[in-house]
């Protein structure tokens, strides 16, 4: 997975994205656990939802930026019972997703099985991933995140 470090809001590595990515949806995956992180402090929650602005700045029309926040307050230790995680994997597999954004990509699934399922489906479907540290192309296997 190729990683592009230090992308500021409003910047996007044009090597990573192609017109086919912009034709599909950008999905902001909002997940925090436990519930007290959702309620206090709310700055972290605002940062998650603020990723919508980042997707728009990177070229996705706001109408094509979806927010999946079904898993707020749920642990990432397993995909079981996490409707948001399951919805995201299904959407990527059906091919309408060009980009997944999260605050920290590696924390969206705590189980290795779930994390690798997400990476594999993104690689197979050509879905990019991005977080506050940079952008990732899971189809490229030379990244330390793997």
Please specify the SSE layout and strand pairing.
Blueprint: E1 2-5, H1 19-23, E2 25-29, H2 35-39, H3 43-49, H4 51-57, E3 65-68, H5 83-93, E4 97-101, H6 112-125, E5 128-131, E6 134-137
Parallel strand pairs: 2-3, 2-4, 4-5
Antiparallel strand pairs: 1-6, 5-6
Helix and strand pattern: EHEHHHEHEHEE
SS field, number of helical segments: 6
Average pLDDT number: 77
Form type: globular
Largest sheet: number of strands, sense, barrel closure:
6 strands, mixed
Which structural class should the secondary elements be placed in?
A: alpha/beta
Strand adjacency order, main sheet: 1-6-5-4-2-3
**Euclidean distance between termini CA atoms:** 7 Å
Q: Tell me the radius of gyration.
A: 14 Å
- Percent strand equals 15-25%
Taking pLDDT < 50 over at least 5 consecutive residues as the criterion, the unreliable ranges are 1-10
